[in-house]
Amino acid sequence: MRQTQLFTRTRREAPKDEVAKNAELLIRAGFIYKEMAGAYAYLPLGLRVLNKIVGIIREEMNALGGQEVLLTALQNRQVWETTNRWSDEVVNNWFKTKLKNGAEVGLAFTHEEALTNLMRDYIRSFRDLPAAVYQFQTKFRNEERAKSGIMRGREFLMKDLYSFNVDEITHQAFYDRAKQAYLRVFDRVGLGGETYLTFASGGSFSKYSHEFQTVSEAGEDLIYVHEAKRIAVNKEVLNDEVLANLGLKREELVEKKSVEVGNIFTLGTRFSEPLGLSYKDAAGVSKPVFMGSYGIGPGRVMGTIVETHTDDKGIVWPESVAPFAVHLLALFDEAGAVKAAADTLYENLTKQGIEVLYDDRDVGAGEKFGDADLIGIPKRYVLSAKTLQKGEIEIKDRATGVVTMKALSDL
RNA sequence: CGGAGCGUGGUGUAACGGCUAACAUACCUGUUUUGGGUACAGGUGACUCCGGGUUCGAAUCCCGGCGCUCCGACCA
User: Which of A129, A345, A350, A375 is most deeply buried (CB count within 10 A of its CB)?
Assistant: First the structure.
């Protein structure tokens, strides 16, 4: 993409109404736009990153056997009353509104009810199981206090997968595979090194749930990390019994602040029983479906990447989620030779399927460098009169700062 | 929802209760410059968040509202 075509611009100064690093940098670089507290629009650059993250998650969910759907954001009151989650006293962050006929509807903050209810139409027999269904959906949560930029919004994208099994044993097998898939997701988006499988409070059907916590000062959670085992325990469940259970010693653990980027949870029959999602087993006996839920917020993942991948000049995107692979900077000369060569190079790279952001703006070199640092694309190609004379281009790695020269004819 | 702070050109800031609300940046014109936001000249752009009040006079003081941020509680 030619940068002269990009409608967004960078800003020199951080907006005064943001303190969170992720929001500050993403707004300055033109990735997101703040609509109101806790609601951000994704601009061309930001959407490219979000879509990369979504793509990685989708691949891993498909590999797990997940089938993608898109449920509704508008939710039926009756279904939620069945599971006793409609009342504002029980769930305090509902966004509710009314239809023209006066009927109340809610904007979904999660989709266990909706999907469990939907699956009743399709699951009859043990032969219909297992099933794993997921979606990317906007969730609405009326947070009493939005904060931390895109890390905690009132409206945010969420990937939620739900698993349906005949019993706890088969569920557990899927759950373990999902755990591995999650670790792969965080690895692939560039958070692997700082992200820990974390034991957290379970529910009536399991001792623990598992969170995926990325160590960051921007986090809101406190976890106790066992570096060698690559696992952690959430402070909320840290006690002697849990430690003994997990075979951990308190003195081996280090306290860290972290961001919860994912969460997987055994639901058991919490939803299938009240909503009547059951199947007939081989003996013809009706049994409730055993469920699990698995969430990741792509927007929060994006914010967490920014929080953990920056330097004093701007963002440093991991290659897998960068909006473009290459940022081509043309430092124009008077004769126009650089512009002509850069145009050609841009066409060639694009034809090869390389995602290039081409800074073809008629501005000074310093401004191009500054913007490139801020936007944070992994590879910077600099073409100038100097390099063109030698038939070369300069390639600078955003993360390491290492500069190499390459012959133009090799590109 | 408790506590604190803040709302001034697009953005970031300044302005004792008193001149035509200032500066930087961004933007537009022209010249200049072309490897780290170059330099100069000219120009556009603000009912100082909204509504009341005090005062001869309010961006400034008071009351109410709305919005934003931070701390806490809550939460993916």
Answer: A375
For A332-369, how does the pLDDT look when each residue is reduced to its tens digit (9 = 90+)?
998 899 999 999 999 999 999 999 999 999 999 999 99
Whether A403 and A291 share a structural domain: no
CA of A193 to C1' of B21 (A): 53
CA distance A209 to A159: 17
The pLDDT score that the predictor gives to residue A73 is 94
A117 and A226 share a domain? yes
The reply to whether omega before A378 is within 30° of 0 (cis) is: no
**One-character DSSP codes across A241-257:** HHHHHHT--GGG-EEEE
The answer to the question of residue A15 being in a domain is no
In a domain, A8, yes or no: no
CA dihedral for A344, A347, A348, A350, sign (positive or negative): positive
Q: What is the pLDDT of residues A175-190, one digit of tens each?
A: 999 999 999 999 999 9
Judge whether A188 lies within some domain: yes
pLDDT, tens digit, 9 for 90 and up, residues A152-176: 899 999 999 999 999 999 999 999 9
pLDDT of A21 reads: 93
* CATH number of the domain residue A297 falls in: 3.30.930.10
Which of A 254-313 have CB under 7 A of nucleic chain B? Answer: 260, 263, 295, 297, 299-300, 313
Tell me which amino acid residue A47 is. Answer: L
Instruction: Write out the residue range of the structural domain in which residue A34 sits.
Output: 21-311
A270-292 mean pLDDT: 97
- Tell me whether residue A100 is in a domain: yes
| Cα dihedral A248, A249, A251, A252 in deg (nearest 10) | -30
Is A201 in the same domain as A119?
yes
- Note the CA–C1' distance, A39 to B65, in angstroms: 23
**What's the CATH number where A378 sits?**
3.40.50.800
- Closest residue to B5 (CA to C1') is A17
Percent of chain A at pLDDT exceeding 70: 100
Task: Based on the fold, state whether residues A31 and A57 are members of the same structural domain.
Answer: yes
Strand B close residues, chain A 91-120, CB < 7 angstroms? 92-93
Evaluate if the CB of A213 falls below 7 Å from strand B.
Answer: no
Each residue of A287-320: pLDDT tens digit? 999 999 999 999 999 999 999 999 999 999 999 9
Give the count of domains, chain A: 2
Rounded CA gap, A129 and A287, in Å? 12
Task: Give the Cα separation of A53 and A61 in Å (integer).
Answer: 12
